[in-house]
User: Fold this.
Amino acid sequence: MQPKNRKTYQEGGIEMNKYSNKKALNGNGKYSTVIESMLKTIWVYSYESEIKKLAELYEKAKKEQWNASSDIDWSIEVDLEKLALTSFFFPITFQEVWEELDDRKKVELATSNTSWVMSQILHGEQGALLVASQLVSSAPLYDEKLTAATQVIDEARHVEVFHRYLTTKMNKEFPITPHLEVLMKNILSEPRWYFKFVGMQVLVEGLAMGIFGTLERFEETLLVEIVRYVMKDEARHVAFGVISLKEHIDQLPTTEKKELVEFAYEGCVHLRNRIVDQSMVWEDVGLPTQRMQEIVERSPVFQDFLMLMFARVVPNLKKLGLLPDYIRPHYENLGILKYEDLEL
Ligand SMILES: [Fe+2]
Ligand SMILES: [Fe+2]
Assistant:
């Protein structure tokens, strides 16, 4: 059953999807986006496993399959207010404004923020599904294709499970943030498969692990159950990227490696903005956008949260040789270089 007073963000802008007759999530009234992408498909004729670690990962993926319909207890009731108000972010992240708000506004802000977080996860999961399907075609080795195929079904399941949670347990949906949209489009349209690996497996998946690690601490039984299943899959996806890239990255010509270093850095800028820019939430609840953004950025709690987000991304970039000296000052300016040696 759907929660009462459920609404979609920017209701006036929603159009019917002419392909599916379902309401679209995009706040600009778009039901879908077409992304031009050049994909070089590689058909391999050798069916021998060449990378033992990937063969093991593929076996593990087959054993760890789960069913979002039957393995999750969807009968668990979700107390939205409790979920929002007891989550990691509240009320200490917004301490400066928290006491100024009346109880109704506190609940509104907290639930709006939680719905925004879950909506971005859903959009990111669809992005992951689309990229994973490209990896099946474009990855050059047999082991990589099989492992990518398991990621496709994993991501489909993640889309399913977060969509179900969002539409049956929460009362709002938000469109994709422009920062996540740009990043996903860059990854999807990039013809070179190893750029996709860095963008998806190292950046987006690494960040997702950070987000899920945070959600796992929430006091909400159903969400924690879902996140534990999803994290097992995502950990395999990050490992997939790191193992595969190690096989190839050192053989890249210098100019391409430099391009890859810059692609990774730009990706981190988009990822950071995707976390920091919560203007959709402020607009939704009618709070001053600029002031709220400033409060978020100087909040120590939010800085801790940012560290969790990049705790896997930056060390993995370093391990892959994608943090050469000339790019380090840029990461320093972004405030995330300090996480380079974190071991999780
Ligand atoms: Fe996923
Ligand atoms: Fe994933």
Notes: The pocket of fe (ii) ion (ligand 2) is lined by residues 128, 155, 205, 234, 237 (CB under 6 Å).
